[in-house]
Design a protein that fits this description.
By secondary structure, the chain is α/β, with parallel strands linked by helices. The protein has nine helices and seven strands. It has one domain: P-loop containing nucleotide triphosphate hydrolases (Rossmann fold, 3-Layer(aba) Sandwich). The strands form two sheets. The protein has a five-stranded parallel sheet with strand order 2-5-1-6-7, with helices on both faces. Strands 3-4 form a two-stranded antiparallel ribbon. A hairpin with a 2-residue loop joins strand 3 and strand 4. The longest helix has 25 residues.
Length: 197
């Protein structure tokens, strides 16, 4: 099995690319989806998060906006949150890998792959990347997003140029969907090639 780490900064199109891998029959572990499930209504982390960050949860689970406000710009608070979330997500990832142990290729879709040290747990790394103006327009089109919040998120992420430099593969997402899909298919073909392509 080849474990491919898929990452990219906010607004680069990582979710779209992950969906393309799924469409090609490659099992994908979505770290963000795992977090949403763990923090959703009845989620395993809701009580611990409420204890650490009072008034950030409710009947629907974690209020992500309230939690974001509680930790954004506060490194100690963020570290406390990560100490709750990261081990639970790691358990979910291990379960995913055990379930797909016989797949020749699996993808771990992890937004903070470099920042959280997950790059050590994968065989190869693919980074999705788009021009800065495309990234900015995508992010600012999201509900509730502000330029200040976007800048705060970017400040927590490794710069795109550094991610690209550390990656084994770069998947461009600034063009058409078909161009991106072709790049995904080429990458899959390369990784399936026993000679290493």
């Amino acid at each position: 099995m080849i474990v491919l780490g898929l990452t990219g900064s906010i607004g680069m199109g990582k979710s779209t690319v992950a969906a393309m891998f799924v469409e090609e029959g490659v099992p994908v572990f979505d770290a963000d989806a795992a977090v949403h499930q763990l923090q959703g209504a009845g989620g395993a982390l809701v009580a611990a998060i409420e204890t650490a960050f009072p008034d950030t949860t409710g009947a629907q689970g974690v209020n992500r906006t309230a939690l974001g406000e509680a930790v954004l710009g506060d490194p100690d608070a963020l570290a406390r949150l990560e100490a709750i979330v990261h081990p639970a997500v790691a358990d979910e990832r291990e379960s995913f890998l055990a379930t797909h142990y016989d797949a020749p290729l699996v993808v771990l879709d992890v937004p903070l792959l470099f920042e959280a040290g997950g790059w050590r747990d994968v065989d190869k790394i693919a980074v999705v990347s788009a021009p800065p103006d495309v990234q900015r327009s995508r992010v600012l089109a999201r509900p509730g997003m502000t330029p200040g919040r976007f800048e705060a998120i970017l400040a927590r992420q490794l710069p795109d140029a550094e991610k690209r430099a550390r990656a084994d593969f770069v998947l461009p997402t600034g063009g058409t969907l078909e161009e991106t899909r072709a790049a995904v298919r080429a990458l899959i073909a390369c990784l399936y090639d026993p000679a290493g392509g």
